[in-house]
């Protein structure tokens, strides 16, 4: 069996320049397949041999009948649209197809697979930087707009095509020999705008001339600039036609008759995978207009995308409760550390979802006022400078059915990614794998710039796992984790001003969020089991918010803790900004020391609260986890069932 997939895919060269590579080279391939014994040939061609496909089925091609497998293009039409002296690629593939048809008639077993543009992969997100469509995407992100009309290009990932091709090649009783491996579903302007908006990216469809003017103004710094002659040549079809919303008129039934269990991935998943790869590969420039870093604009975008206009009531300052910290954070991230596009995207996306969640909370409170009457009594709060130690202890204590831990999916999407999740007092034992928010959680884990392989190797996560409640606190937009992830020194200074007054405000939002999660699940009241290293320096705020809270202080050797903390921060910031490792270590050490002093001072001044505290040594915890947990329960006078303690 022989697979022939190579070609010089050049839309700018004439036929004479491509003939040797794309057409005459088939002589050697056929000779290989016919020497000694016949070998079945599987050859990839292109749908681009059809002028209608090249023309994006615009203008006179908009109402044409479907292109069927095996049908050859009209040569007169090809000459009209593809002058061989100017556009040679379609001719080189057409000539190859004609040669292979004759070879098959003479007895050579073969299959031909016509493909669309294949510039990206679903599994890895790999995107070919030199491709026209990639240049268009990068330039569109750079300008914060894309030309309407070009959106109809099919999102058919190369790895899905490869899987289909290989699977078909091994079929013993194949029904067909000619296939179109293309997802005929179009990606519309509104879908691109919505998918981008869901990630906090401002990406709007505009008329072609407006986009072209922006490209010309930027000149050679625009990746699409070198393709402007091509775009102008096809402008009438690509951009001046009525936008297509119906599937492309291309038959792909042959492949599904032979492979009925295959299906195309969603366009959204393909778009997101390609976008994330392009971010990580630094295709996008830091000065791109698609990422808004202005507080009022970010709030307005969140309100627009959520379809809501009211942020939570009862917080000091009204909307300023949210816009003030966003302004401080974005100013610091932009001016102090100069985030990369990837960093700006990560920050914008995070703030966007946090604001949408806040809007969803307020909407639900208006419908269900009893949410804010939920009592959060005597939560168990694991504090300690070491994230791993806190997470391990929380995971252990979560095995006690009387404890309730916040889960990754509900913390990041309390009412779903788009606010559509409407819990009806779910039972406490409702299985998490059936929670509709799990799908959004999986997408976040797969695509978040700050939850990459480096970070996940330190602290693995899944949608139903217990989650550090720092993610809850982030909804106040007043969290040290923003300093960890984005540097933002002046924002950190703003948090520390006035004896941490801004942090104190954040705990009101923290409690409010827990009330929503508690309301969502009915049944016997459970104790909340929370964990965060950021609580270490704010024991007074925890106990002011939750007077009956019981604090479990996890201790670990300072050297090990500092090293682990720096590794965590470094993994979060990788790719988001230039990192000065020495400065990073100095800042983290200072913050951890300040937190430790604040915690020690609080406990020294409040000895009457010692019954609400229990201390755990990390080494003892790792050596004998169950014994350490029993000690905590005994110290805090908590009942431990025989089943849990076994």
What's the average pLDDT? 89
Structural class: alpha/beta
| Range of helix content | 40-55%
Low-confidence stretches: 452-456
In CATH terms, the superfamily of the largest domain is NAD(P)-binding Rossmann-like Domain
Envelope shape: elongated
The first-level CATH class name of the largest domain: Alpha Beta
Radius of gyration: 30 Å
Percent in strands: 5-15%
Number of strands: 11
By DSSP (H or I, 4+ residues per run), the number of helices equals: 29
CATH topology of the largest domain: Rossmann fold
First CA to last CA: what distance?
60 Å
Per CATH, the architecture of the largest domain is 3-Layer(aba) Sandwich
Q: Provide the domain count.
A: 2
The main β sheet shows up as: 5 strands, parallel
How would you write the strand order of the largest sheet?
Answer: 8-9-7-10-11
Written account of the structure:
The chain has 646 residues and is an alpha/beta fold. The protein has two domains: 2-280, 3-Layer(aba) Sandwich (Rossmann fold); 378-425 and 432-645, 3-Layer(aba) Sandwich (Rossmann fold). Helices cover 50% and strands 7% of the residues. It has helices at residues 15-24, 26-34, 51-54, 75-81, 89-105, 132-143, 158-169, 189-198, 208-218, 228-233, 235-238, 253-258, 267-280, 295-306, 320-335, 341-367, 387-397, 408-412, 437-447, 453-458, 470-473, 480-486, 489-520, 539-545, 558-573, 581-605, 618-623, 625-635, 642-645, and strands at 2-4, 41-46, 110-115, 145-147, 178-180, 204-206, 380-383, 403-404, 527-532, 550-555, 613-617. Strands 8-9-7-10-11 form a five-stranded parallel sheet. It has a four-stranded parallel sheet with strand order 1-2-3-5, with helices on both faces. A two-stranded parallel ribbon has the order 4-6. Helix 15 runs antiparallel to helix 16 (341-367) and helix 15 packs across helix 23 (489-520). The longest helix is centred in the last third of the chain and has 32 residues, at 489-520. The radius of gyration is 30 Å and the shape is elongated. Residues 452-456 have low confidence and may be disordered.
């Amino acid at each position: 069996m022989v697979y022939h997939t190579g070609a010089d895919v050049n839309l700018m060269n004439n036929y004479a320049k491509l003939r040797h590579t794309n057409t005459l080279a088939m002589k050697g391939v056929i000779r290989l397949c016919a020497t000694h014994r016949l070998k079945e040939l599987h050859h990839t061609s292109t749908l681009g041999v059809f002028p209608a496909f090249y023309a994006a089925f615009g203008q006179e091609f908009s109402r044409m009948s479907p292109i069927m497998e095996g049908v050859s293009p009209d040569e007169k039409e090809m000459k009209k649209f593809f002058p061989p002296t100017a556009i040679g690629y379609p001719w080189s593939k057409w000539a190859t197809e004609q040669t292979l048809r004759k070879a098959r008639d003479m007895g050579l077993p073969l299959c031909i697979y016509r493909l669309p543009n294949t510039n990206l992969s679903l599994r890895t997100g790999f995107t070919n930087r030199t491709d026209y469509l990639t240049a268009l995407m990068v330039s569109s992100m750079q300008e914060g707009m894309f030309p309407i009309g070009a959106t109809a290009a099919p999102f058919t990932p190369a790895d899905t095509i490869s899987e289909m091709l290989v699977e078909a090649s091994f079929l013993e009783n194949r029904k067909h020999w000619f296939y179109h491996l293309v997802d005929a579903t179009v990606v519309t302007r509104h879908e691109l705008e919505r998918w981008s908006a869901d990630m906090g990216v401002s990406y709007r469809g505009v008329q072609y001339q407006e986009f072209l003017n922006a490209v010309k103004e930027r000149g050679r710094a625009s990746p699409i600039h070198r393709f402007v002659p091509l775009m102008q040549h096809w402008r009438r079809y690509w951009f001046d036609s009525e936008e297509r919303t119906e599937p492309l008129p291309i038959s792909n039934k042959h492949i599904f008759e032979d492979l009925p269990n295959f299906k195309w991935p969603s366009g959204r998943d393909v778009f997101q995978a390609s976008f994330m790869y392009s971010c990580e590969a630094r295709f996008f420039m830091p000065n791109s207009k698609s990422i808004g870093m202005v507080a009022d604009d970010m709030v307005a975008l969140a309100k627009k995308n959520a379809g809501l206009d009211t942020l939570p009531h009862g917080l000091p300052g009204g909307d300023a409760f949210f816009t003030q910290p966003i302004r401080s954070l974005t100013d610091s991230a932009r001016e102090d550390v100069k985030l990369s596009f990837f960093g700006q995207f990560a920050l914008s996306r995070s703030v966007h979802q946090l604001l949408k969640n806040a809007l969803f909370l307020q909407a639900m409170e208006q419908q269900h006022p009893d949410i804010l009457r939920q009592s959060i009594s005597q939560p168990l709060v694991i504090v300690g400078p070491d994230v791993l130690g806190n997470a391990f202890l929380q995971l252990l204590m979560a095995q006690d059915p009387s404890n309730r831990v916040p889960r990754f999916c509900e913390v990041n999407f309390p009412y779903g990614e788009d606010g559509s999740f409407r819990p009806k007092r779910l039972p406490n034992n409702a299985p998490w794998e059936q929670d509709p928010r799990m799908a959004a959680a999986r997408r976040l884990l797969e695509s978040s710039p700050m939850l990459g392989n480096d970070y996940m190797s330190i602290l693995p996560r899944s949608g139903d796992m217990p989650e550090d409640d720092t993610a809850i606190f982030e909804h106040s937009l007043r969290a040290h984790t923003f300093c960890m992830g984005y540097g933002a020194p002046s924002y950190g200074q703003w948090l520390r001003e006035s004896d941490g007054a801004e942090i104190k405000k954040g705990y009101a939002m923290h409690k409010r969020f827990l009330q929503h999660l508690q309301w969502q699940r009915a049944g016997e009241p459970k104790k909340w089991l929370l964990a965060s290293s950021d609580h270490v320096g704010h024991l007074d705020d925890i106990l002011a918010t939750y007077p009956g809270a019981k604090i479990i202080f996890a201790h670990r050797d300072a050297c090990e803790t500092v090293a682990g903390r720096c590794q965590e921060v470094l993994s979060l910031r990788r790719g988001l900004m230039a990192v000065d490792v020495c400065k990073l270590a100095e800042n983290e050490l200072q913050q951890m020391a300040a937190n430790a002093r604040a915690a020690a001072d609080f406990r020294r001044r409040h000895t009457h609260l010692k019954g609400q505290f229990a201390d755990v040594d990390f080494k003892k915890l790792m050596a004998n986890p169950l014994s350490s947990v029993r000690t905590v329960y005994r110290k805090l006078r908590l009942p431990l069932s025989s089943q849990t303690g076994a």
